[in-house]
Write a structure and sequence with these properties.
The protein is α+β, with helices and mostly antiparallel strands. Helices cover 44% and strands 21% of the residues. It has a domain at 4-197 and 394-401: Ribosomal Protein S5, domain 2 (2-Layer Sandwich). 50% of the residues are buried. The structure holds alpha-D-galactopyranose. Alpha-D-galactopyranose binds next to helix 5.
Length: 402
């Protein structure tokens, strides 16, 4: 495939001067808890968005996509940009432009050509990679700080422009990741702890082929879960204060989890909450505990232990959080049959991908089992390497002159 640089020259008749790249990510564990400010443990991977570009003197952004996968877009940078219709890809370009215009009054745009090999709407953050690549390009051109953590906080706010009330995991890992590492990300304040992925470990990504379009049905389901978590927290805070369990009111999930262990918290939650609120709360606090344990397992090279936590995460996402699907459950089961140490849905769910853990000796068997049992009956071998691959922990976004 020809690169975005060549397509740029064909399209605009001059060479580009900058190349920006931003990777997708696979979340290893800690799902649907970043928006509760609880820690998560993702890694960036080798699939990425690349934009070849040339700064303009005015405030226009003209962006084409290589291979015409998305229609070309053009708009002016200004505060309060109007989004296009729901689901339009260009909103992921308008999002960082709008945010940077509102915060830093930026005024310079660019001509660009975008290329991406991150599967779209598959739970690998193809959209945040676009937001980050455009955000990093605009920050660079307009001389705004491009320090990864600062930019990640701005980009996490920026992406809410599309209507999903996301947490900050995707933007942070895609900007801040290091080569060969996963990162434990904690919020308020935003911190990354880089953890080297053991050389022998292999994280397999398997795409169910069911699209999980963040700007579609998933958006309503996602936002509803966020509200349920907020409501569960509000009730728990009130309950704890009324029963004098703690001296000071605990008003955030991190405060709750720091003050009381999971067992104690769940004992109280069972009195205070019911139905979905109880289930959502149980997922949040048990998943947060699994993240901490998973970091320790990776540091200790304990593959089986890490895998068991992934299995428990999937079970919780399925039964308590209600974000799995038949296809995702099947992929998890097949990966386990093939010998994976653990497997779980990754990303927001409702379709998209699973991530499975194997080691260098068992990875071939897991891949073959998945190919034979899941992909061959559905897609023959068509585009297998796009749907099923081993994720390579990769460094975060970067920009360079070309
Ligand atoms: C989406 C959001 C993230 C996170 C995940 C679920 O990818 O963008 O912030 O909430 O879903 O873990």
């Amino acid at each position: 495939m020809i690169g975005p640089e060549e397509v740029f020259e064909e399209t605009f008749g001059v060479p580009p001067t900058l190349l920006v790249r931003a990777p997708g990510r696979v979340n290893l564990i800690g799902e649907h808890i970043d928006y509760n400010d609880l820690p998560v443990f993702p890694m960036a991977l080798q699939r990425e968005v690349r934009i070849a570009l040339r700064p303009r003197e005015d405030g226009t952004i003209v962006l084409h996509s290589s291979g015409g996968i998305f229609p070309p877009i053009e708009f002016e940078i200004e505060p309060g940009i109007e989004p296009w219709e729901k689901g339009a890809w260009g909103n992921y370009v308008k999002a960082p432009a709008n945010e940077l215009a509102e915060r830093f009054a930026i005024g310079r745009g660019f001509d660009g050509v975008l290329q991406s090999d991150i599967p779209v709407a598959a739970g690998l953050s193809s959209s945040s990679a676009i937001v980050n690549a455009v955000g990093l390009a605009l920050a660079h051109i307009n001389e705004v700080s491009t320090e990864p953590r600062e930019l990640a906080a701005v980009m996490a706010d920026a992406e809410r422009f599309v209507g999903t009330r996301g947490g900050g995991m995707d933007q942070t890992i895609s900007l801040g990741a290091r080569d060969r590492c996963a990162a434990r990300i904690s919020f308020r304040p935003l911190r990354l702890r880089h953890v080297a992925v053991p050389d022998d470990w292999r994280f397999i990504v398997a795409d169910s082929g069911e699209v999980a379009e963040k700007s579609g049905r998933l958006q309503a389901e996602y936002n509803r879960r966020r509200s349920e978590c907020d409501e569960a927290l509000r009730i728990m805070t009130g309950h704890l204060t009324a029963h004098d369990v703690t001296d000071t009111p605990l008003t955030s999930y991190p405060e709750l989890c720091a003050a009381l262990d999971v067992h104690r918290l769940m004992g109280i939650a069972e009195e205070a909450l019911q139905g979905n609120l109880l289930r959502r709360f149980r997922h949040a606090v048990t998943e947060a505990a699994r993240v901490e344990e998973a970091v320790d397992r990776m540091l200790g090279g304990d593959l089986r232990g890490f895998g068991a936590l992934m299995d428990a995460s999937h079970a919780s996402l399925k039964s308590d959080y209600g974000v799995s699907s038949t296809a995702l459950d099947e992929l998890v089961a097949v990966a386990k049959e093939g010998g994976a140490a653990g497997a779980r849905l990754t990303g927001a769910g409702f379709g998209g991908c699973v991530v499975a853990l194997a080691d260098r000796w068992t990875v071939g068997e897991v891949l073959e089992t998945l190919a034979a049992a899941y992909y061959e009956p559905r897609y023959q071998a068509d585009r297998l390497e796009e749907r099923l691959f081993v994720a390579v922990p990769t460094r975060g976004a970067s920009i360079r002159a070309i």
